[in-house]
Each structure stands twice: as C-alpha cells, then as structure tokens.
Amino acid sequence: MACPFIDEVVDEGAIVLRRAFQRERTFRDKSDPLAFNDSYLYERYRFSRDGIAYICRLLSPYIANNTRRNRALTVPQTVCIALRFFASGTFLYTVGDAENISKASVCRSVRTVYLSLKRLLNVFITFPGHKAIRTIKHAFYGIAGFPNVIGALDCTHVRIKCPSGPHEADFVNRKSVHSINVQMISDADCIITNVEAKWPGSVHDSRIFRASSLYQQLARGEFSGVLLGDQGYPCLPYLLTPYQEPQTEAQHHYNIAHARTRGRIEMAFGLIKSRFQCLKHLRVTPPRACDIVVSCVVLHDIACLRRERQPRIAEEEDWGNEAVLEENETGRLIRDTYANNYFA
Fold first, then answer.
1. Contact 335, 222 (CB under 8 A)
2. CA–CA separation, 177 and 315 (whole Å)
3. How far apart are the C-alpha atoms of 308 and 302, rounded to whole Å?
C-alpha cells in the first residue's frame, strides 16, 4: 500500500531537482554563449561558433575584464552581447532581456567591442585589398570584361536619431532624413577595402571623395588602376563614371559593363545592412554612429574572409545622389579610350 507522505516527498524532490536543473542550464547558457549549434548562433549573432571564437581571440587583449568579481562578463559574453545588438538593431534593453543582463551592461559591452574593433580597422580594411593587385583586376574583369579596375566606389546613408546642437541641419540628407554619409570601396568579392565614416548626411558624395586621403594617393599615381563610380562623381583619370547620354554603340556597351562591375559595391552595401540590422537606424549620437559603422564594416570583412554564411541580400535604398555635371577633360579622354578600345 502506497504511503501518501512518501509520494508527496518524492514529488517535492522532483520539483526541486527540476528547478535546480533549470537554474544550472540558465547559468550555463549565460556563461557560455558558444554552447549552441551554428544555426542557433548565426540566427542571433551572424557568425558561426568558430567565427565567434576567432573574434574573441582578436578582441581578448582589449576587452578582457581584469577583475576578481565572480559575475564579471567573460570575453565570449561581451562579444556576443555586442554581436546581438549589431545583428538585430533592437533596443539595448531588449538585448539585455535576451542575454539576461542589465541595459547598462549591454551599453558598456557594445561600446567596448565597437571601440576594440575600430582599433583593427587598418588590419582588415586595406586598399586596394589583401590580394595582389593583378588578382584584384582579374576578378573585376571576370564580371563584365571591364579592365584595370581596382575598386568600386559609392556612398550609402545610415539613418541616425536627430542630433542635438547647432549642427543638426547638417545631418539632414536629400530625403529629409537625419543620417551620416559613408563612403566605401569594395573589391569583386564584396570585401570592403576603404571606408570613410565621418560625414553628415547633407554632404555630397563627390566632396567626401575629394576630401579623403585616398583621393590624394590616387592623384599622385600611387596605385595602378582605376575606380568605378556612379554619376555622382566627376570622371577623372583614376575614377571612371558612366556616360550620361551615350551616343555610340561602344559607349552603350561601356555603360553596361560599367554598371555590372560597379554593382559589387551595391551588393556589399546590401550584405552589410542585411547582416547588421542596426545600420538601418542607429539611435545614437553621430560620433558613436560612425564608430559603430566602422566596427560593422570590420566584422563584415572578417565574415567574408572566413566565408561565413551570407544573409539574404536586401535591396539598397536609392538615396537619389545628384549628378555631377562638371567633368575632367583628361578623365573624359581616358573614358573614351576605354570605350573605343575594349567595348567597340
């Protein structure tokens, strides 16, 4: 005959064990965010387990907590908190709820990680790229037969919250949206080789390019090859743009090959903004927005170099860049030479 008292004790013991197991599992998941499969990690952090571990090794000298506190965040925790914010673009308290930490800890972790990634800018983002320049040109030529190309140039806007202060109007772009205008150059594999993230949304693309250090290097002839840009840039000896009104068959063929080849930078924008949803709207001040953009570009290059899974590419928003009517005479002559020699 069963004893009710014993049954009650057994049931209470089972409940206690179940709760203890749940607490242990929660603690284990929090202390080791890598204790999941790659699909789970990619969905939340946009990187595989090996990719996150690689980023942890890179950033460990900069973000490791030198403390004896038993609840201090580990390097994987800190990295995954920041990656979750970059990937989701949600509010800090939402990330904190998902990671089971406070909003203040999320804010500190995100800032620590993006400043650490910014220190690696010149390691992963280098012009004209990590490969030999001949290999870079060959990869671009394989797209549409456009020779001597070492990069595709364009700008994209990243929305930000309305900044305070007397310069608020400088950040309003042509679509009446507050943003920063970010210049990037990509290779044929959509790896970013140059980034300028410091200009308000009202600044024209061509002005950003002329003010960049890369412009001076190209003007001095330090690189053998040309960039491809859209009609928002002047046609220069080292920056070829499309014909606004093509007249000959060669010019039509030139424009087609130009558009297909330059499309790699548009594809890169789509990849970056799909991988890191935070870049669709950053609710931070302009200086912090610039730092976050740079850190996301560094992470994008790491993902490309490590061949991480690519997200579904979102179509890049057309920001309606105003065409530049003034063109360089030497640039026009070089463009005509390309059209007549390679696309006639």
1. no
2. 19
3. 8
Alpha-helical (H) ranges within 132-173 are 133-144
Residue 14 lies in a domain: no
* Contact status, residue 273 vs residue 181, Cβ threshold 8 Å: no
Task: Give the total number of structural domains in the chain.
Answer: 2
| 3-class secondary-structure state, position 310 | coil
User: Of 73, 97, 120, which one is at a domain's C-terminal end?
Assistant: 120
77 neighbors 117 (Cβ within 8 angstroms): no
What are the strands of the beta sheet with 239-240, ordered from one edge?
Answer: 192-200, 179-186, 149-159, 226-228, 239-240
For 164-194, the pLDDT digits (tens) are 989 999 999 999 999 999 999 999 999 999 9
Give the residue from 81, 98, 120 where a domain finishes: 120
Is residue 215 within 8 Å of 185, Cβ to Cβ?
Answer: no
DSSP element (H, E) containing 15:
helix 4-31
pLDDT digits (tens, 9 = 90+) for 269-302: 999 999 999 999 999 999 999 999 999 999 999 9
Instruction: Please give the average per-residue pLDDT across 202-210, as a whole number.
Output: 95
Other CB atoms within 10 Å distance of the CB of residue 107: 16
Identity of the residue numbered 303: A
Q: Confirm whether 13 is domain-assigned.
A: no
Instruction: Say what percent of the chain tops pLDDT 90.
Output: 74
